[in-house]
Amino acid sequence: MLDKDIERVLVSPEEIHAAVVRLGAQLTQDYRGKEVVVVGILRGAAVFMADIVREMDIYLDIDFMDVSSYGEETESSGEVKIIKDLDTRLEGRHVLVVEDIIDTGRTLNYLVELFKYRKAASVKVCTLLDKPERRIVKNLIPDYVGLEVPNEFVVGYGLDFKQKYRNLPYIGVLKPEVYQ
Ligand code: PRP
Ligand code: MN
Ligand code: MG
Q: Quick one: where is this thing mainly located (predicted)?
């Protein structure tokens, strides 16, 4: 039923799974023996978060943060409002931030700086999708990337358009008539 709004599938469930397995194996290797807190950024990262932590065969803590960027039209944006903060103290802990997509990089830039300020032992970023063409914060380079995507409006597997389509099992491009 949701399929009727999708122009084409960009990343199939099988391709998503392969990326998650590959990243999970790498993260398992890199974080073995470390005190890691995996931080999922609501709401987009919820689906990826659930899958990626199950591919990490190590002891880890899970926490979530809900943030919203505002002032999109102002040049000085990059200010991010915290809707729900972490419940976990980060001092001395290794932090792995999990995101669904990096676009301008403003959300993650803010969070990485915040977690460093909170004296995390290290802060790394794992994103399923990266859209480098749209990057404004040029020095924000994710440590772990599932797939690069072109500059198109993508939905599914956590990503929304007006809060819908997050439950699609694939990542797709919306038909223009849906958002016009
Ligand atoms: C989306 C996405 C990332 C962020 C990326 O979240 O999930 O968190 O935007 O954009 P940026 O790199 O330009 O900062 P959104 O603010 O739409 O909230 P949501 O996760 O609840 O959909
Ligand atoms: Mn988000
Ligand atoms: Mg969104």
A: cytoplasm
| Pocket mutation for ligand 1, best pick of 42, 72, 81, 103 (most atoms within 8 Å of C-beta) | 103
Ligand nearest to the CA of 79: 1
pLDDT tens per residue, range 99-141: 999 999 999 999 999 999 999 999 999 999 999 999 999 999 9
CATH number at residue 41: 3.40.50.2020
143 is catalytic: no
* ipTM here: 0.97
Question: What is the domain range of residue 10?
Answer: 2-69+78-179
CA of 66 relative to ligand 3 center, distance in Å: 11
Total number of domains constituting the chain: 1
